[in-house]
Amino acid sequence: MKAEVEGVILAGGKSSRMGQNKSLVLLDKKPLIEHIFNRMKKQVKRLSINSNEPLSIFSKSIQFGDLLPGQLGPLSGIFSGLSQAKADWVQFCPNDTPFFPTNLVAKLSAHIDEENPKIILPTSDGKFEPVFLLCPKNLAGNLKDFLSSGERKLEVWVRSNNFKTVDFKEKHAFFNINSISDLQKI
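RE: above sequence
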């Protein structure tokens, strides 16, 4: 049986290196997050956005803020996404990587029943891409305990669970835009 996967775009960060809300920076005359949304919505059954600042270009009904106070980073958005998920599995994606693979969810979700991994994530050029993790919503309690311990590092949490990596050959698919100079490069 194929697992149902929903998607969450992580857009709750401070965008400090960009100097403005990264989600709304224009790329090819469209807000950056719109590129992400359009690419991800074709891959999942349901799509929502974790943003601590409402984005007027999307319906409020698909947006939610962090459930934990204090801007704890991407793990807080992941916890919030797992907590509000309707499907058993959730594919996460950052708001600043507009060229991620169009087969991301299909390729990662193909490994759901394999060796019973709790977290499935892509690698590219031998490097982890942990913000693109696919994981079951039942890990919300595990993640809340991790955050309550004071930890904030995403890769540390991933490694503390049973995980599987899936290699993607696309060279620049996971290039993220953190600053105006990154935007100018592309």
